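2024-03-11 09:14:02 INFO worker-7 job=invfold-0412 stage=load source=structure_tokens
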């Protein structure tokens, strides 16, 4: 059961989803932007571009399940501790914005709006791992400080 702390299997599963989603999305963007190939009738998409997008789409669905899991299992109990709320809110807002922008990119966007939306989705997606790392590192730092204080109390 997940409370404030994630058991290792859940944590590593979520980290894996984050990494695969980030890696496939970044790979898709890199291939789309800088790896066009010369074809018989001009520039054509790189052969790996579509598979990268397929993997990214699959990871997006799994990430939505993961975010729902975090909202249902981790958020209510963590909110009561009143710790790391700012990074927690950021970590909740960013995936929601990615879901909305991903939906709009896939189903709605037209040319001018699409390009703006693409770069917004990319920027949020690139910043998300930094935010997650900050959230986790703050927790590790807090845990280490707690251990130091407990060891000082034991010496007394």
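2024-03-11 09:14:09 INFO worker-7 stage=emit residues=156
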């Amino acid at each position: 059961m997940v409370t404030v702390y994630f058991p290792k299997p859940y944590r590593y599963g979520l980290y894996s989803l984050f990494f695969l989603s980030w890696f496939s999305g970044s790979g898709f963007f890199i291939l789309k932007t800088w790896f066009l190939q010369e074809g018989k009738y001009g520039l054509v998409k790189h052969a790996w571009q579509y598979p990268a997008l397929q993997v990214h789409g699959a990871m997006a669905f799994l990430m939505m399940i993961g975010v729902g899991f975090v909202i249902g299992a981790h958020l209510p109990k963590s909110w009561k501790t009143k710790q790391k709320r700012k990074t927690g809110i950021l970590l909740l807002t960013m995936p929601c914005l990615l879901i909305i922008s991903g939906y709009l990119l896939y189903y709605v966007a037209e040319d001018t709006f699409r390009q703006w939306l693409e770069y917004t989705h990319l920027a949020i997606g690139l910043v998300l791992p930094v935010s997650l790392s900050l959230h986790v590192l703050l927790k590790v730092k807090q845990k280490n400080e707690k251990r130091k204080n407990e060891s000082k109390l034991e010496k007394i």
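2024-03-11 09:14:09 INFO worker-7 stage=report msg="The first strand starts at residue 37 and ends at 39."
2024-03-11 09:14:10 INFO worker-7 job finished
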